[in-house]
Hints:
Layout: H1 21-29, H2 31-34, E1 54-59, H3 65-73, E2 77-82, H4 86-98, E3 105-108, H5 112-116, E4 124-130, H6 148-157, E5 158-168, H7 171-182, E6 187-189, H8 195-198, H9 208-215, E7 221-227
Parallel strand pairs: 1-2, 1-4, 2-3, 4-5
Antiparallel strand pairs: 5-7, 6-7
Helix pairs in contact: 1-4
Amino acid sequence: MTEASPWRRLHGRRHGKKLKPGRRRLVETLLPRLRVPLDAAGDPAALFASPPADLWLEIGFGGGEHLAAQARLRPDVGFIGCEPFLNGVSRLLAEIEADSRLANIRLFDDDARRLLDVLPDACLGRVFLLFPDPWPKARHAKRRFINPDNLTQLAGVMADRAELRMASDHMGLIAWSLEQVARHPDFTWTARRPADWRCRPADAVETRYEAKALENGDGCVYLAWARNPRAAPIDGEPGELSA
């Protein structure tokens, strides 16, 4: 998608309450050091001090609690978090500053699609989309992140058999997402039994939005899809895919 192309808005506010001085300082000083420049995203491994064993992306990380927990669990993985809401970004920045174990996180504080446009093919081993805005009104459904165009973008930057994880407490969004991904040829739902979508993955952590939903008695659904392997090249010629 070019700069001249119209953008459908997929996220809500960019700013909330006025940031406290300490958080403003982090946005002014730490964020520029961790921000992923679009002109450097073509080589994402180079963003980290040492080449990571894998690269994982979280789209819309909210306050960053899940992203930080995953980064602690997998110090060998490089993490990129996308979040346009500045207050959430500043919260994660404070956690990164306080914990040296989070040196494997880089941030993109804008629309994730701009980053997907420039990432190299098959570079991501896992993508998280946890409790995204459900855009519950029918006229806003087209703003949901799970849609044919975005799925094609994701498929391009995800490695073969890479995992796309999604969670939500909004059953309308869950039904929409299952339908959208089922129609896409590059993904397969990995669930084999009810516990696979009823229970949070063992290596995941509870997000603030999930905790609020559970406290209110709302059920949460946890979905995972695998990126289907790409077709093999014909006669060993790279770039030519079989029909």
